[in-house]
Amino acid sequence: MSDKQNEIEAAVLRRLLAHLDSRKDVQNIELMNLADFCRNCLSKWYMAESNERGVNMDYDKAREFVYGEPYNDWKEKYQLKATPEQLAEFEKKNGK
C-alpha cells in the first residue's frame, strides 16, 4: 500500500468521524439497524487494528478516539433510550 493511499484512507476515517460527530442525533441503535455497525463497532475495530500493530489500545481509549470525548460523557449528553421499535428491529436483525 502506498503512502498516498494510507494518507487518503486516514483522511476518509477522519471525515467519517467528523460526520458522525456532527450527527450526534443519530443513535447507535439506528446505525446498527440500518448499516450493521455503529460508533462502538468503529471503536472495536480501531482497538483491534492498533493492538495488531503493536500499539497498546484499550476499549475506553478507542471509544474516546471515536466519540471525541470519554464515552460515558458522550452517552450522558447525547444517547437516548432506545424505543421499543428500535429494540425489536435490532433483535429481529440479530436473531434474538
Can you tell me about this structure?
The protein has 96 residues and is mainly α. It has helices at 3-22, 28-35, 39-52, 59-67, 71-78, 84-93. Helix 2 runs parallel beside helix 6 and helix 3 (39-52) packs across helix 4 (59-67). The termini are far apart. The model has no long low-confidence stretch (mean pLDDT 96).
Task: Jot down its keywords.
6 helices, about 100 residues
Query: What is the number of helical segments per DSSP (H or I, 4+ residues)?
Result: 6
Helix content class: over 70%
Largest sheet: none
Strand content: under 5%
Q: What sequence of helices (H) and strands (E) makes up the elements?
A: HHHHHH
Span between termini? 40 Å
Q: Sum up the overall morphology in one term.
A: globular
Mean pLDDT rating:
96
Structural class: mainly alpha
Spatial extent as radius of gyration? 15 Å
Q: Based on DSSP secondary structure assignment, what is the total number of beta strands? A: 0
Give the low-pLDDT segments: none
